[in-house]
């Protein structure tokens, strides 16, 4: 696979951090978080939630950044580059399929929002 020499880059560190945070948080957390806190025991839920973010989400985000920057390729291409001759490319493919599913879900949320407005 060949990478394009004119690949886009983030304009600032803050822009990247905000985009990564927005991607990690998502609409479900923005809308569902207050409801879950109310139903799930208040502060106890928040402590468990933050613990899960630090323990699970942060390492995955760092791993994705390292793979992407190190390979300069698509998710599938990154796994093919770092583990040639193996079947690890499917991990990148699962990530792509998951992203498509999330975008499909957001189109439904967008429809609900338009209908509400």
Description:
This protein is mainly α. It has two domains: 21-72; 76-117. The protein is 79% helix and 0% strand. It is globular and about 50 Å long. The mean pLDDT is 82.
Task: Describe the structure using short key phrases.
single chain, 117 residues, mainly alpha, 2 domains, 4 helices
Question: Briefly, what is this?
Answer:
By secondary structure, this protein is mainly alpha-helical. It has helices at 13-39, 43-71, 75-82, 89-116. The chain is built from 4 helices and no strands.
Spell out the blueprint of helices and strands.
Blueprint: H1 13-39, H2 43-71, H3 75-82, H4 89-116
Helix pairs in contact: 1-2, 2-3, 3-4
Radius of gyration: 18 Å
The major sheet is characterized as: none
What number is the mean pLDDT? 82
H and E order: HHHH
Number of domains: 2
Structural class: mainly alpha
**Low-pLDDT regions:** none
Strand content: under 5%
- Total DSSP E strands: 0
Distance between the termini: 45 Å
Percent of residues in helices comes to over 70%
| Backbone shape | globular
Count of helical segments?
A: 4
């Amino acid at each position: 696979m060949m990478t394009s020499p004119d690949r886009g880059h983030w304009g600032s560190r803050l822009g990247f951090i905000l985009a990564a945070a927005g991607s990690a948080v998502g609409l479900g957390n923005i809308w569902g978080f207050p409801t879950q806190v109310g139903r799930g025991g208040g502060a106890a839920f928040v402590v468990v939630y933050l613990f899960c973010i630090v323990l699970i989400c942060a390492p995955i985000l760092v791993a994705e950044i390292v793979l992407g920057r190190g390979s300069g390729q698509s998710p599938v291409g990154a796994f093919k580059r770092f583990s040639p001759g193996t079947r690890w490319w499917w991990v990148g493919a699962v990530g792509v399929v998951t992203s498509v599913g999330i975008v499909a879900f957001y189109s439904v949320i967008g429809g609900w929002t338009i209908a509400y407005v």
